[in-house]
Amino acid sequence: MTEEHLQGIQTIQKAIHEKITEVMSLTKELDEAINRQDQVSVQILLFSRRQPIYELCSAWAEMKLKRYDLSDREAGEFDSILRGDQDVPLENKAALMQQLSNRRLLAKLQAMDKAANRKLCRDKSFYRTTLS
Questions:
Q1: Of 48, 54, 50, 56, which Cα lies nearest the Cα of 15?
Q2: Residue 15 and residue 8: Cα distance in Å, rounded?
């Protein structure tokens, strides 16, 4: 993969990392507000999470679009990075490590969101019937 493509991918990955971290921080605050039964803060924090989640989705879409700029061979390398394959070429290792880090953070965020959603919504939780 060319250096230019690799740098573009890593830039998007870093933006994804920042947005996941931002949403995690807001979700932690949301959980604390739920525990305090502070309905005003809960509403504000739910609203506050919308923009960084939207930006996170946009970054993921941008990452997928990057694939169309690549040759077949480069697209294969790109797919290997996104899958988290350990046998990527050395020059792609930094992108792979960022991808794996983003996956770990996303898993933590999903667990945090699941816990907060279940506290807030109880038997009407989104997670009650899906993604269990």
A1: 56
A2: 11
H-only helix segments in the chain: 3-36, 39-66, 72-83, 93-121, 126-129
User: CA-CA distance, 15 to 26, in Å (whole number)?
Assistant: 17
Q: Name the residue with tokens 């690799």.
A: 6
* Alpha carbon separation from 48 to 25, 32, 60, 126 (Å, rounded): 11, 15, 20, 19
- The packing angle between helices 3-36 and 72-83, to 10°, is 30
> Residue 66: which of 80, 54, 79, 52 has the closest Cα?
79
Identity at 7, one-letter amino acid code: Q
Rounded-to-integer distance, Cα 131 and Cα 114, Å: 9
pLDDT (tens digit, 9 = 90+) per residue, 58-116?
999 999 999 898 999 999 999 999 998 888 888 889 999 999 999 999 999 999 999 99
Indicate the pTM of the whole model.
Answer: 0.87
